Amino acid sequence: MAPRLDQSANKSPQSDEIGLPKKLLKLQKYHRFLSTLTPQQMPLAARGLAVSKDQSREFMACFPDIVRDLTKTGKHIDVPEASKWLAKLLQYNVPNGKKNRGLATVLAYKMLEKPDNLTPENIHLANIMGWCTEMFHTHQLLLNDIMEGTEMRRGAPCWHRRPDVGLAGINDAVFVQSAMYSTLKRHFSAKSYYKNVLEMFNEMLLKCSIGHHLEKQLTKTDKPDLSLFTMEKYEAITKYKTAYYTFQMPVGLALLMTGIDDPETHRQAKTILLEMGEFFQIQDDFLDCFGDPAVIGKDGCDIQDGKCTWLAVVALQRATLEQRQIMENHYGSAKPEDVARIKDLYEELQLPHTYSVYEEATYDLLRTQIQQVTRGLPHDLFFKILDNIFRRSV
């Protein structure tokens, strides 16, 4: 599908360029502004889920109570230092990200639940469920950062990089996971959907583990094996490592909380949400390379780490023998000149333009798929998530 060529047709070029990062100005040679790089509509992968200030405050207000319940309820009184450590662990790692998964859980619940059931108690439970998804996410990040040797996370040193943590961070990741299950038991064990919720968390844990395994198979040595970088492999890693728990899980949990456990309803929601999750990861890959670190909150390191990204896979699909040799020689190196050479190659292969066309086509395709959803699922829920990914107004 052709990209839109008439973006900002009625605006003066000078006014458009005010405040744009240099990276975006450099990419203006392509057919249209990339919505992924436009600051005023920075997407979900960079800014987080757009919710009201009241909803954000409501969600944040719930977290201290969860920490208090986990650390000051009279349990483990013979080891107070463990409770103190757990509080420190949770406060440092859980609430400081974008909270996409937690906020999406609450948003989905409020849009799926019958109005008469939107009591303060049920909304509070939805917020708690949202924090459980955030603890699940934290558990994944703690392990992932150790496996990949990541230095910084959310503008602060990764937990395992702290001098008082190190490889003990593996146990801390299990600690967070256990805290998540304790919170679920405390608040939901009497609910009819508790068993299904536990099954969903366990299923997501398995899927994430598969995703990490698939990714690690491609980077088992210091030098990535580019012959394994196929679109099939990339899509499998993306689905298992990201899409399931970032998109399907929040909506799936909300469906269960509202009493909807019909397999076909969950299947239809899953189909669309996994497609959104795949694009979300592709968007994240693009931002890692071409985004402004001041906006996205991190310095991109996918090239240095030799990761199997959408950009790398498409580049290898298009590369001549000479260009493929450039990938072989420079990809996976932390040397600034090697990273710059790969980025130059991406632009030579017109990957920003390819992404631009892909972004437009994916947006239109997902809107069409949402319109075809049946089983009484509200289209507005999926449109809300979609527009947060693309940061659009429709």
**Overall structural domain count:** 2
Counting H and I runs of at least 4 residues, what is the number of helices?
18
CATH architecture of the largest domain: Orthogonal Bundle
- Let me know the CATH homologous superfamily of the largest domain: Farnesyl Diphosphate Synthase
CATH class of the largest domain: Mainly Alpha
Structural class comes to mainly alpha
Run of helices and strands:
HHHHHHHEEHHHHHHHHHHH
- CATH topology (fold) name of the largest domain: Farnesyl Diphosphate Synthase
Number of strands: 2
Label the overall shape: globular
β-strand amount: under 5%
- List low-pLDDT spans: 1-21, 28-33
Largest sheet: 2 strands, antiparallel
Mean residue pLDDT: 88
Helix content: 55-70%
Terminal CA distance: 19 Å
Spatial sequence of strands, sheet with the most strands: 1-2
How large is the radius of gyration?
Answer: 22 Å
Pathway: Pheromone biosynthesis
Protein name: Farnesyl pyrophosphate synthase
Family: Belongs to the FPP/GGPP synthase family.
GO cellular component, one term: cytoplasm
Offer a quick outline of the entry.
The chain is an all-alpha fold and 394 residues long. It is built from 18 helices and 2 strands.
